[in-house]
Amino acid sequence: MKWIMSVMMIAVLFVTSSPQVFAAQQSNVANVRVVHASPDAPSVDIYVDGKPAFKGASFKDVTDYEGLAPGEKKVQVFPSSANGKGKPVLEQKLTVAAGKDYTVAAIGKLANLSLLALEDQKGSGDNANIRAVHASPDAPPVDIAVKDGDALIKNLAFTQSSDYQEVAPGSYNLEVRPTGSEESVLDLPNLPVEGGVNYTAFAIGFLEGDPALNVILLKDGK
Description:
Elements (H helix, E strand, L loop, with lengths): L6 H10 L2 H9 L2 E7 L7 E5 L2 E7 L8 E3 L2 E9 L10 E7 L4 E7 L6 E7 L7 E7 L7 E5 L4 E6 L8 E3 L2 E9 L7 E8 L4 E7 L9 E6 L3
Parallel strand pairs: 1-7, 9-15
Antiparallel strand pairs: 1-4, 2-3, 2-5, 5-6, 7-8, 9-12, 10-11, 10-13, 13-14, 15-16
């Protein structure tokens, strides 16, 4: 699953451009990655302004960041089996800005699929930052908490994303709890957190059903 680009053009870019020029060119595009977080959707292809962009994304897949010209974009999602033909399962407009990083997640059940666009912040400094996205269609609002301890992120409902929360680097035992409850519905043991890195944790899958509730942890920023 990679942004469809000419390999020859990439080679020419690296041969003919100085690092300063290449950095300037990167600042003129938006960096976008895609998360397939719809638990009952098939493998999908994503088209941007009528052209194939990401292909063959399956549930839980996360693409690399790829460059996209800034501005308003028409995004269409097709089952991979459709080869971009017929009616898309989702069509939505998104706006991206030059020099910024984004995560675009396909969330919800196939019948009411939507895109959630998040602006990503690259980490810096000694500590880390973590935010969460609730992408489990049948789960109630939840808290993300230290195991048997205090909640780091509270009352996060389906389709919502939290702000970044600063944490010290280390290994964390976390758990997902229904808001207002002390009972864990998902344990997340030994999560490694590096200083100077920002993370997004996606709660995906079904609380009751298959695929089961799980969390994927992403490092943010290109």
